[in-house]
Amino acid sequence: MINFIFLLAFSGCLTNESENPGNDDIEPYAENPRYWQYKGEPVLLLGGSMDDNLFLISGLEEHLDLLHSVGGNYIRNTMSSRDTGNSWPFHLQEDGYYDLERWNEDYWNKFESLLKLTHERDIIIQIEVWDRFDYSMDFWKANPINPSNNVNYTEKECGMAIDYPNHPARDLQPFFHSIPGMPSYQQELDLVRKYQEKFVAKMLSYSLKYGNVLYCMDNETSTPREWGKYWMNFIQKKAGDKKVYTTDMFDRFFSPHACPNCLIAIEEPDVYEFLDVSQNNSRNFDQMHWDTLSWILQQRDLYSLRPVNCVKVYGGMNSSWGSGSNEDGIERFVRNVIGGCAAVRHHRPPHGNGLGVKSQASIQSVRKIETMVNMWGMTTHMELLSDMEDDEAYLTAKLGENYVILFPDGGRVKLDLADYPAEFSGRWISIGSGSWGEKFSLEGGSLKEISSPGSGGWFAVIIRE
Questions:
Q1: What is the DSSP string of 160-225?
Q2: Alpha-carbon distance 186 to 177, whole Å?
Q3: Is 137 helix (H, G, I), strand (E, B) or coil?
Q4: Distance (Å, rounded) from C-alpha 72 to C-alpha 69?
């Protein structure tokens, strides 16, 4: 219990506002902008949740309490209503049609409750304003914006059809082209943009009151970047003197070298104030997952140091598009942490581990690392590891002082301590259980063999005496 209380205080979860003068809002860490700070203190964001639009679930407070109890402080919140039983933001009339000029107060009351409850627990929310899946296939048929479902416009008046049966990756929905100059823009879409702006302004009327909010424009978009840039600018203008951080999430970050939008996001830090590279956590496995993340972070460093988030870490169902297994999700999660991501969250089931037992253990294992070393004080140093196979081990370190080795599934490697003839002590942490393992000691000054206690995921945390 003593270790756990210290752990939360160390990670920023129990920070006393009065002890941190200045800006208490989420922002890049002043001393290392690769990470976030909140209430004036650096913080590593870790999370997992049962759903993506948590403000619409039942048992919200209990779920947030569970997340907080295991050291979690980061959630995703899509402004989406497509799941069974969800309410929509607009007023539903007795005749079954929506009136887009009136609000569903229940929807917005629940959203405000999420903001309040997370703020009380020092949990950071990453809002996604638009989710493309709400506007295509069967989900579109129930959407209030669909001209067949509201009393405010017809198909002809709004420029949108009542049916878009194709996967949204094909970007055939004019809803996402309502900005003048976009490829499928037509003047009728000005009417749609009126309601889009009305919706975002309403959302901001609640969220701008809180400092624990980040803003991502889209869920894995394949729409031209002009769409997201319009809404980032819209949010920044509404925020006025309050500094908020905005970005967009591009679909093809699993192959960023061949993704023009991904490259532009990396190259434009003034526009994309942090990066979300969640799609690297699909399709990419093992060493390729690490190598792609490393390339993204190296490219980021060429332009401007800013946080890189992964609000979705897939792992479950072994889908055809590369979600992988539940174990792949755990391995991706901890690789992201060791690789230098500022925020990492398990995606919801069934294609993620959510906040299940394995997710809880992975979060607890990282928080145990933080009782010994600071992640924002280290960088990756794979050149110091030898005698290993692909995906056997990964290293982050502050040379001569702190070393953290990740073994995704057991292993044995050699760590180069030749330049540091000193005494080192170490501790094993089980990723599978989130519990402490054995202690060990090392004499520096040469190559040292490090062998995991067994199979499964392990952290070796090594510090200079």
A1: --S---S-GGG---GGGG-STTSTT--TTHHHHHHHHHHHHHHHHHHHTT-SSEEEEEEESB-S-H
A2: 8
A3: helix
A4: 7
Residues of the chain with CATH 2.60.40: 379-464
* Residue 419 CB-density burial (10 A; 0-12 exposed, 13-18 middle, 19+ buried): exposed
pLDDT digits (tens, 9 = 90+) for 126-157: 999 999 999 999 999 999 999 999 999 999 99
User: Closest by alpha carbon to 200, among 71, 111, 137, 276?
Assistant: 111
pLDDT tens digits along 179-214: 999 999 999 999 999 999 999 999 999 999 999 999
Task: Tell me the CA distances in angstroms from 227 to 82, 188, 190, 197, 217, one per residue in order.
Answer: 22, 17, 14, 13, 9
Q: Find all residues with CB under 8 Å of 133, minimum gap 6, and list them.
A: 80, 82, 139, 168, 219
CATH superfamily of 2-376: Glycosidases (3.20.20.80)
Structure token pair of residue 87? 């309410």
Residues of the chain with CATH 3.20.20.80: 2-376
Amino acid identity, residue 103? W
Distance CA 415, CA 51 (A): 40
- Which of these, 322, 369, 452, 401, lies nearest to 11 by C-alpha position? 369
Can you give the three-state secondary structure of 72-99, one letter per residue?
CCEEEEECCCCCCCCCCCEEECCCCCEE
Query: Topology of domain 379-464, per CATH?
Result: Immunoglobulin-like (2.60.40)
Q: Is 128 helix (H, G, I), strand (E, B) or coil?
A: strand
